[in-house]
């Protein structure tokens, strides 16, 4: 009888564990993730441009440390993250709604939100420990960095012809046999915040950026909306080389067996930040701050590096390669000026788009 009671008790214990697991089970969709108890009164809303699959392990670790919090994550484009924040304030500036934390790879747009008064101050031991380039006004913070690289399909481009600088890429585009004609891709800067940031930084740093854009156009360049979009094209063999992709997503694909290779341009390699802000309208800014401090903690930084492939903030300067992250701050706002942006996009369209598409 005693053993029967013990057996029943064990069964009840297993059932309770199964119910708890079900309550905390991850609900994953193509563009979202939910973790934690469905009936929790502590709901943390995160909006970010990070890929759900790449960021999932990091958020699961946070959820395990904070089992009472329900975390609702939505993946959005960098432009939508920015525009949604602006629209919420325009519709009802006093309302407490929207996300509690926003993470975006378009660090210029995040900086603009701070500059225009859409973020709240957060000070903690974790934010105080950040280097100066990674914290601006205690309102926008780098949680990790990502080099912007070139990527090629190893089955389609011979190793002897791989370009290691932008000048070598230009020479390859101008080669008589035109090996990249109709087989090169770059960001559509009209709709991608990160694409626009990378392209304008190229213009700022490189005197031959205009010539490279013109060569893209002459070679029938296609455009991609995201790094994931470009990697899909590369894996399918639709393009041979893609310009300005995020290293972390590319590394993830290569680890999964994709026959791709990364080029770190030797003339300069841009290093952008995945930056985070706590919006002023956040319903639970305290929970947003909790997640931010976790991401900046030693454990969070280690998880970000291992799970998402981002580089930890304190390991972002690669002195021997001359690579330094772009600093958060007003310098990023130059090409967000309306007149400068319109002028840049006009030049980009003239160089990249076919005449019939440009006229639409």
Automatic annotation (TrEMBL):
Signal as a keyword of this entry, yes or no, is: yes
Do you know which Pfam families this protein is assigned to? SBP_bac_8
Among InterPro entries, the record links this protein to:
SBP
Entry keywords, A to Z? Signal
- The signal peptide annotation in the UniProt record is 1-25
Q: Which domain of life is it from?
A: Bacteria
Q: What is this protein called?
A: ABC transporter substrate-binding protein
């Amino acid at each position: 009888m005693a053993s029967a009671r013990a057996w029943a008790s064990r069964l009840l214990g297993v059932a309770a564990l199964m119910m708890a697991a079900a309550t905390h089970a991850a609900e994953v969709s193509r563009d979202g993730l939910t973790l934690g108890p469905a009936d929790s009164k502590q709901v943390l809303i995160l909006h970010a441009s990070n890929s759900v699959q790449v960021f999932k392990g990091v958020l699961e670790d946070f959820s395990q440390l904070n089992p009472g919090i329900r975390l609702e994550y939505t993946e959005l484009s960098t432009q939508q993250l920015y525009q949604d924040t602006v629209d919420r304030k325009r519709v009802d500036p006093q309302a407490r709604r929207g996300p509690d934390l926003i993470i975006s790879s378009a660090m210029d747009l995040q900086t603009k939100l701070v500059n225009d008064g859409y973020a709240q101050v957060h000070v903690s031991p974790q934010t105080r420990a950040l280097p100066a380039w990674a914290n601006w006004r205690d309102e926008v913070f780098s949680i990790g960095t990502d080099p912007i690289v070139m990527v090629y399909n190893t089955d389609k481009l011979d190793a002897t012809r791989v370009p290691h600088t932008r000048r070598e890429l230009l020479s390859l585009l101008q080669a008589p046999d035109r090996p990249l004609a109709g087989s090169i891709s770059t960001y559509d800067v009209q709709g991608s915040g990160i694409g626009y940031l990378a392209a304008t930084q190229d213009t700022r740093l490189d005197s031959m950026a205009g010539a490279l854009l013109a060569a893209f156009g002459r070679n029938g360049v296609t455009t991609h909306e995201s790094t994931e979009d470009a990697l899909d094209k590369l894996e399918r063999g639709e393009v041979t080389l893609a310009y300005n992709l995020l290293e972390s997503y590319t590394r993830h694909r290569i680890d999964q067996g994709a026959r791709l290779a990364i080029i770190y341009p030797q003339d300069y390699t841009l290093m952008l930040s995945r930056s985070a802000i706590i919006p002023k309208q956040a319903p639970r800014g305290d929970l947003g701050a909790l997640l931010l401090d976790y991401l900046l903690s030693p454990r969070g930084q280690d998880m970000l590096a291992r799970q998402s492939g981002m580089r930890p903030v304190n390991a972002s300067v690669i002195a021997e390669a001359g690579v330094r992250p772009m600093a958060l701050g007003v310098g990023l706002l130059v090409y967000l000026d309306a007149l400068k942006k319109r002028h840049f996009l006009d030049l980009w369209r003239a160089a990249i788009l076919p005449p019939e598409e440009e006229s639409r």
